[in-house]
Amino acid sequence: MELSDEDGRLLIELARKAIEERVNKGSRYIPPEEIRRRFSKEYGVFVTINRFKDG
Description:
single chain, mainly alpha, 49% helix, globular, 2 helices
């Protein structure tokens, strides 16, 4: 599966929202239906989370 730059930006935003929702509210982020349809295939991923000094 190839992703466009726009897809990549959208997925990064989605990941940030999911992390913020879990950390700040303790709940699971459920993305809008359009996003779930767009990325409905299941794939494995490897993620590295970095924290920068300015935020």
